[in-house]
Every structure is written in structure tokens, then in C-alpha cells.
């Protein structure tokens, strides 16, 4: 797949640019339209991310996707990179997604992350208006397209698999393939090689038939409306220390910058669903009930250390 190798040269996150930022005083995702007109939220736009709630439609034809090569260890090496906006793992060729209502076969090119800060959650999509600590996106390009530019002109040119990330106290040993390399990409522009590992080991593999589907956009400039979104219901679990590596030890500036800036809150604001239909797969739990219990963990988990501390320290 020669075209895949070429794509990795031009695909950082979705756009390699210093002209957008997230949480600096002069700049946030609402202002991206000043530099990228397609990022303006207009009444006829199908923008991402969105809030997921109980207003969705069950689609019995949406079964589990076929994830080719995800169970295998790929050859060669992968590259982990800090592009100043996210941490990106470029995975090379050998993996693809299809089925599950997708209109074509899509080749996997990279995955990246969105997070908040030391005391705030940072998933891009929300569930009943609540955020998870992090969100991971696996980006896949439709096989008929020779490059990213062509894919961005196609309303279904990209298929992105989104996974919420929640926090527990034990390290996720499989996530360690990435977290153990983060110190090598702490600053913008830094990159390091990663030994390939089965990508499925990161995912909630026993719950891959539970997801939600809608049509939307990139969540970074140029905000192209070219994405078939698949958002998985069951999160990935990592430890507090693994989360802290993202929220406190990754920087949006270069190492020799006069003032280094932590990379935090790198998520885009929520957009209206408008006329779109959000579909639930045949096995999804439709949020209410089972998802409500999951949400407690996602939104309250940051309070646990304070509550536990109050058990031992007077006055708390």
C-alpha cells in the first residue's frame, strides 16, 4: 500500500498548523473559523463533536465492525509524535475497518488522543452533557482515495472510531505501549519509534458490537464534514498515573521555547445535532440505565481522592 506511506507524511492530527489552539486566552475552538472558514458552525453544517443522549434510533443492521489486522502484530515500526495539538501514533499499513454499516473498506492510518487538565475531564464527545477524562480516535481513510485531500472532499471519506477513556487505579499494561513512550514526545515536534503491538489489546474487545453512529466532521481544522463516526459505548480504562502523563507532562511548545506551555483541554466544543440521526447499534444499551452507571465513574472519579482524603484528615 504505497499510498498509505505517503499519507503518513501529511497526516499529523488532521491538520498540521500552528494557527489554531484550544485554551489559551486569545484562542479557543470557537475562533477557528477566523483562520479556517469551514470551522464556522453554520445551520446547514454537520459538525463534530456532539452530545450523546437517549434521543437516538436503534438500527438492527449495525453489527460489529470487521477490524482487519487489529489482532496481529504488524511488521516494521510505528511512530509516536507530538504535533503540538495531540499525541499521534502513526501505524503504517496492514490494518483496515469495514462492515457495521460503513459504505466501504477504510485503511487505518493513525490514532490520537484528546484530554482535559489535572482536575478536569477532556473527552470530545459527551454523554448526557458529561465528559470522560479522555477520548481516543482511530482514523481510517476510505480505500478509494489516493490521499487525504481527496478524502476530505467526500462526505464519507474518513471513518473514525472513537473510544472514551476512563480512570481506575491499576495501570493498563497494554496502554503502556504508548504511555511508556510519552516522555520521549513531551514537547512539540518530538517523535519516537514504537514497536507495533496488536491494536485490539487497547480496545474493549468483548463489547465491540456496542456503539453509536452518526455523520459529522473533523474536530480540528479544517473541520471538513467528511467523517463517519463510530463511538463505542464501553470505555477503555487506564490508571491515574497514565492519565497524568497526558494532562501534566505533554507540552504544546518546543523544548527550547522561552516559556513552555502544557498541552491541556485539547477538545473542540459540542455542536448541535440538528437534523441528523444518531443510530444505536443492535447491541448498544441506549445510554439510559447501564450507561448512567458508567457515567458516574467518568464524571465523579476525580472527586474520589478528595473524598478519601476527608476520611483521614480533620476538617475535610
TrEMBL record:
<dbReference type="InterPro" id="IPR001148">
    <property type="entry name" value="CA_dom"/>
</dbReference>
<keyword id="KW-0325">Glycoprotein</keyword>
<dbReference type="GO" id="GO:0004089">
    <property type="term" value="F:carbonate dehydratase activity"/>
</dbReference>
<keyword id="KW-0479">Metal-binding</keyword>
<keyword id="KW-0862">Zinc</keyword>
<dbReference type="InterPro" id="IPR018338">
    <property type="entry name" value="Carbonic_anhydrase_a-class_CS"/>
</dbReference>
<protein>
    <recommendedName>
        <fullName>Carbonic anhydrase</fullName>
        <ecNumber>4.2.1.1</ecNumber>
    </recommendedName>
</protein>
<feature type="signal peptide">
    <location>
        <begin position="1"/>
        <end position="15"/>
    </location>
</feature>
<dbReference type="GO" id="GO:0008270">
    <property type="term" value="F:zinc ion binding"/>
</dbReference>
<comment type="similarity">
    <text>Belongs to the alpha-carbonic anhydrase family.</text>
</comment>
<keyword id="KW-0456">Lyase</keyword>
<dbReference type="GO" id="GO:0005886">
    <property type="term" value="C:plasma membrane"/>
</dbReference>
<dbReference type="Pfam" id="PF00194">
    <property type="entry name" value="Carb_anhydrase"/>
</dbReference>
<comment type="function">
    <text>Reversible hydration of carbon dioxide.</text>
</comment>
<dbReference type="InterPro" id="IPR023561">
    <property type="entry name" value="Carbonic_anhydrase_a-class"/>
</dbReference>
<keyword id="KW-0732">Signal</keyword>
<dbReference type="InterPro" id="IPR036398">
    <property type="entry name" value="CA_dom_sf"/>
</dbReference>
<feature type="domain" description="Alpha-carbonic anhydrase">
    <location>
        <begin position="18"/>
        <end position="282"/>
    </location>
</feature>
Amino acid at each position: 500500500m504505497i499510498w498509505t506511506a505517503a499519507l503518513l507524511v501529511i497526516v499529523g492530527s488532521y491538520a498540521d498548523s500552528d494557527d489554531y489552539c484550544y485554551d489559551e486566552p486569545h484562542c479557543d475552538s470557537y475562533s477557528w473559523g477566523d483562520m479556517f472558514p469551514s470551522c464556522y458552525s453554520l445551520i446547514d453544517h454537520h459538525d463534530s463533536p456532539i452530545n450523546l443522549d437517549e434521543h437516538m434510533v436503534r438500527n438492527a443492521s449495525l453489527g460489529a465492525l470487521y477490524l482487519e489486522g487489529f489482532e496481529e502484530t504488524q511488521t516494521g515500526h510505528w511512530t509516536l509524535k507530538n504535533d503540538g495539538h495531540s499525541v499521534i501514533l502513526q501505524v503504517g499499513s496492514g490494518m483496515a475497518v469495514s462492515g457495521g454499516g460503513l459504505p466501504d473498506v477504510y485503511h487505518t492510518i493513525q490514532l490520537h488522543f484528546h484530554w482535559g487538565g489535572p482536575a478536569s475531564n477532556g473527552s470530545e464527545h459527551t454523554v448526557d452533557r458529561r465528559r470522560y477524562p479522555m477520548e481516543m480516535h482511530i482514523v481510517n481513510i476510505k480505500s478509494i482515495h489516493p490521499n487525504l485531500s481527496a478524502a476530505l472532499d467526500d462526505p464519507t471519506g474518513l471513518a473514525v472510531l472513537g473510544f472514551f477513556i476512563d480512570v481506575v487505579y491499576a495501570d493498563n499494561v497494554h496502554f503502556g505501549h504508548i504511555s511508556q513512550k510519552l516522555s520521549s514526545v513531551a514537547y512539540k515536534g518530538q517523535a519516537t519509534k514504537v514497536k507495533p503491538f496488536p491494536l485490539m489489546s487497547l480496545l474493549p474487545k468483548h463489547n465491540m458490537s456496542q456503539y453509536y453512529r452518526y455523520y459529522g466532521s473533523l474536530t480540528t481544522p479544517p473541520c471538513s464534514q467528511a467523517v463517519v463516526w463510530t463511538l463505542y459505548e464501553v470505555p477503555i480504562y487506564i490508571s491515574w498515573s497514565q492519565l497524568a502523563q497526558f494532562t501534566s507532562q505533554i507540552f504544546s511548545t518546543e523544548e527550547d521555547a522561552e516559556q513552555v506551555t502544557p498541552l491541556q483541554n485539547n477538545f473542540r466544543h459540542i455542536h448541535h445535532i440538528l437534523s441528523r440521526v444518531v443510530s444505536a447499534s443492535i447491541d448498544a444499551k441506549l445510554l439510559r440505565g447501564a450507561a448512567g452507571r458508567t457515567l458516574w465513574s467518568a464524571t465523579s472519579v476525580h472527586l474520589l481522592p478528595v473524598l478519601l482524603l476527608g476520611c483521614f484528615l480533620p476538617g475535610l
